Automatic annotation (TrEMBL):
This is Class A beta-lactamase-related serine hydrolase. It comes from Agromyces soli. Keywords: Hydrolase. The keyword ATP-binding does not apply. It comes from the Bacteria. The keyword Hydrolase applies.
Amino acid sequence: MTPSQGSERRARHADVRRGKHRTDEASEDFSRGFDALGELALAGVQVSARATDLATGRVLFSVDDHVVMPTASIGKVLLLVEVAARLAESETEALTVLDRDARDAVGDAGIWQHLQSPSLPIADLAALIGATSDNLATNVLLRYVGLEAVRARTEALGLTRTALLDLVRDHRGPDDAPQLSIGSAKELTWLFASLARGEIVSPEVSQRVVGWLTLNTDLSMVSAAFGLDPLAHRRPDHSVLLMNKTGTDGGVRSEVGVLRGPRASVAFAVSMYYADTQLSSRLAVLDGMRQVGLDLLEFVH
């Protein structure tokens, strides 16, 4: 590392600490999470985060929340919004059966690729995306509704720094979008807070998307701190209720969600972009995200 690079990293670390929104109440002290994020920034991790009080909209903390970051599968939420909006116009469309074929084939996340059924209803495909971020279901639904329709819906929502850029691919070539999706923590917290309040398209559409997202089984990042059952947390557990979506790719860990507790509710987004060259780097990122989660849990509980 050159002296100038070291200075830049120290400055970035200082910016993370200065970016803290803190009140005089000890229960609203997010210093544990900010210390963890600061250490990651010092180590060269690009960090972006934001949390807001769901009831008042007050910013609880923010770190470079305007920065556009790669968010991997989080952009699939925009697909779910478009699908939910279509189902609201025609309930019978939920039972429309879609076939998978060779052009949709993709590996990694999801279980449909491991199932025998070659066809599933639209509503079931959306549930698979909510539950396991199913890549095959994503590609089949994207082929049905069209990426342009998702982009138009995204623009109609007023999102300018958040987008689903492409279908899911096992390998990205020079002619493909470099990332599956991008987003800013500021826009993502707004999107999830608005979903929780029933303000995305309509209460019916928002409720349907929330229902799919509460199926999510990935609690490996920020939500690792909440002590919930990854396979069953649709009802309050010790007065804690979660809706979330995660994104995982090489060098990318991102989570956005809404956490409700007996004392308060928060919308949050944390994204990390890092050199995934060794396991210790990945574990440090995940631990940093969990530290933020511990602060959030203390705030709501």
